[in-house]
Q: What sequence folds into this?
């Protein structure tokens, strides 16, 4: 069960400013029912002073989405549009006494709805998302949004991006892309692959191959009643022999590929594994 | 406020009779059943009595029962035992709607080089037996299919599946955690080799489970150590809980028909009333073959976690397949496998009853749920019908 603050509970159970203002001057519509949360924000704006005189919301979502939306309307009422734009998602979370980190995306949705509504009021066309820019297909999150939210909240890890935008929290396929975006954004260097040393002497190579076969390959095969022996290493050719259940097994081709992939990953890309 | 507890597929209350039966083994009789002295040794006989009660409920022989720590351990043990017994074969068949105790473990084995077939289900969550037969091949070492689904309550055709597998001499395991005490199980006639059960789903405490292994089935232990459970599951016995599980099985034996009638009557009243009062609601699952205590309903335009937390304010306990209530961003794998639209998954609520629920409680839920759905729909931007008119629960 989520640990919500009393204020989140209060704003969820008795939300303020529900519904739609009549003849709204500004409408911000974000999220979708498929993604699991959505918010429609409607505003009344005084044309003379640029002040938000009324704000109402409708939200589809969990307790923290409803509480965040209601908090947003309370925060922006009476403010000028420029003042309102300075409100960040963290301000929404702070107003509620904090949100569980996995629920920060609810506060981000509030911020987005506000920006959408103000753009709508000012007649700014919001760009239709290009297909290629969507990074997370499960939750329809664009690269632009990931960069923006990461900047605003100083996010540096994929997990944090998932907490704040949901991106990467579905099938997980885009997690490497998010990682790349974060590296680019914070100009981090791609770390060198840890295990694989650059240049090995022949002796070092043989010792490393022996070690990997002994500790990473044999235990798995032995668990299945098989085994493998290292017979010889000539240049980039690794000669092995299967024992026990593995010898003559129809799957040994698959096993060779597996061993080769492992050795290529950990020792050298040019290794070729063969049986005796 | 006494809670209205309708989350019995998650866990159940320990029956007072069970607690009383356990109490002496948590206080005065604390000995180790393996000890040579009478103080400990006498407990061994009590464990064997409990084993008899468990086997009695299943129509099994006492020596076919191994006590474990939980349903997950039973499931993991059964699967590992099967693949160790037939080391040459590397194909496992299961379903897309299994409990994580089987599903995640099979995925884990998939990463270790086993080939796993996850059988699909249709919109009602039913399996297609032709799909199942087509999936069988020379390399199949084990079929593991749940007896009944925890989220939607569907009962799977274990007898038919078992008969097909027996003909082909392929091992068959079923996770029966949700069916114990709810529908009769008779392993004298049911063609199943291994069956998992869990104490806390049938009014015994948490931390106790059992695995049935049919006589003559090759078995490899998972926990290796002492000689407990005839070497089939090492570790000092959880004596009090074993006694508790035995008592819970005794209480269930002979009462299943009566209890399941009582449960399905209350469940059906809850289900039909809510579907009637709340527009844009639906049942998820196979209403023709379902556990008597379970109903899984979807309410469009609203989100499950919000429903649960508002129900919580009234002391009503249920669960949801929505993403927000699961601790991850992914909604229920069961409802997704069934192709339930995302909009309906987000608003899904499971009510699961037990023998301790009353008609008054169900009446209270029938009164409160539509009120909450209506309130949340008023908050939702999606509650419109085709003409643009707001939809709300009619009171």
A:
């Amino acid at each position: 069960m989520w640990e919500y603050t009393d204020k989140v509970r209060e704003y969820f159970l008795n939300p303020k400013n529900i519904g739609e203002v009549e003849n709204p001057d500004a409408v911000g519509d974000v999220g979708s029912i498929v993604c699991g949360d959505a918010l429609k924000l409607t505003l009344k704006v005084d044309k003379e002073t640029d002040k938000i005189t009324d704000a109402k919301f409708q939200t589809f979502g969990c307790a923290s989405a409803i509480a965040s939306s209601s908090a947003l309307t309370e925060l922006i009422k009476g403010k000028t549009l420029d003042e309102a734009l300075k409100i960040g998602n963290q301000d929404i979370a702070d107003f509620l006494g904090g949100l569980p980190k996995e629920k920060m995306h609810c506060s981000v949705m509030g911020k987005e709805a506000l920006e959408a509504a103000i753009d709508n009021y000012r007649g700014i066309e919001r760009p239709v998302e290009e297909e290629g820019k969507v990074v997370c297909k499960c939750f329809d999150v664009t690269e632009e949004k990931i960069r923006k939210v990461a900047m605003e909240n100083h996010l540096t890890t994929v997990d944090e991006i998932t907490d704040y935008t949901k991106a990467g929290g579905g099938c997980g396929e885009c997690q490497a892309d998010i990682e790349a975006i974060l590296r680019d954004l914070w100009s981090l260097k791609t770390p060198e692959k840890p295990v694989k040393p650059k240049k090995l002497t022949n002796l070092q190579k043989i010792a490393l191959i022996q070690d990997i076969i002994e500790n990473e390959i044999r235990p798995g095969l032995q668990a299945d009643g098989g085994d493998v022996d290292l017979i010889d290493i000539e240049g980039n050719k690794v000669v092995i022999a299967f024992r026990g259940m593995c010898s003559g097994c129809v799957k040994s081709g698959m096993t060779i590929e597996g061993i080769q992939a492992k050795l290529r990953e950990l020792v050298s890309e040019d290794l070729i594994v063969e049986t005796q | 406020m006494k809670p209205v507890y309708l989350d019995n597929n998650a866990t159940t209350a320990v029956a007072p009779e069970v607690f009383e039966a356990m109490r002496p083994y948590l206080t005065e009789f604390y000995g180790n059943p393996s000890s040579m002295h009478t103080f400990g040794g006498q407990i061994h006989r009590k464990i064997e009595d409990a084993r008899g009660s468990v086997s009695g409920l299943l129509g099994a022989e006492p020596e076919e029962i191994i006590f474990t720590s939980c349903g997950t351990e039973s499931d993991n043990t059964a699967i590992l035992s099967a693949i160790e017994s037939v080391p040459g074969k590397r194909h496992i068949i299961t379903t897309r709607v299994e409990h994580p105790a089987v599903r995640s473990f099979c995925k884990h084995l998939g990463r270790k080089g086993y080939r796993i077939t996850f059988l699909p289900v249709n919109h009602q969550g039913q399996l297609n037996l032709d799909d199942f037969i087509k999936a069988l091949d020379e390399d199949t070492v084990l079929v593991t299919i749940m007896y009944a689904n925890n989220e939607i309550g569907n009962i799977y055709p274990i007898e038919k599946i078992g008969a097909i597998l027996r003909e082909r001499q392929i091992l068959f395991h079923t996770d029966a955690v949700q069916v114990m005490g709810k529908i009769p199980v008779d392993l004298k006639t049911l063609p199943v080799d291994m069956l998992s059960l869990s104490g806390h789903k049938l009014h015994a405490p948490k931390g106790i489970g059992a695995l049935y292994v049919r006589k003559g089935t090759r078995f490899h232990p998972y926990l290796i150590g002492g000689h407990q459970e005839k070497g089939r599951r090492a570790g000092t016995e959880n004596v009090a809980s074993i006694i508790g599980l035995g008592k819970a099985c005794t209480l269930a034996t002979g009462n299943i028909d009566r209890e399941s009638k009582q449960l399905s009557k209350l469940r059906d009243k809850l289900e039909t009333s809510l579907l009637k009062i709340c527009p844009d609601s639906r049942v998820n699952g196979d209403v023709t073959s379902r556990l008597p205590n379970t109903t899984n309903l979807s309410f469009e335009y609203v989100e499950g976690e919000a429903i649960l937390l508002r129900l919580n304010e009234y002391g009503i306990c249920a669960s949801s397949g929505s993403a927000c209530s699961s601790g991850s961003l992914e909604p229920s794998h069961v409802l997704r496998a069934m192709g339930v639209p995302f909009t309906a998954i987000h608003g899904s609520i499971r009510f699961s009853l037990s023998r301790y629920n009353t008609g008054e409680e169900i009446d209270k839920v029938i009164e409160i749920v539509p009120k909450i759905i209506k309130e949340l729909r008023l908050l939702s931007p999606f509650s419109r019908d085709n003409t643009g008119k707001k939809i709300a629960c009619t009171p």
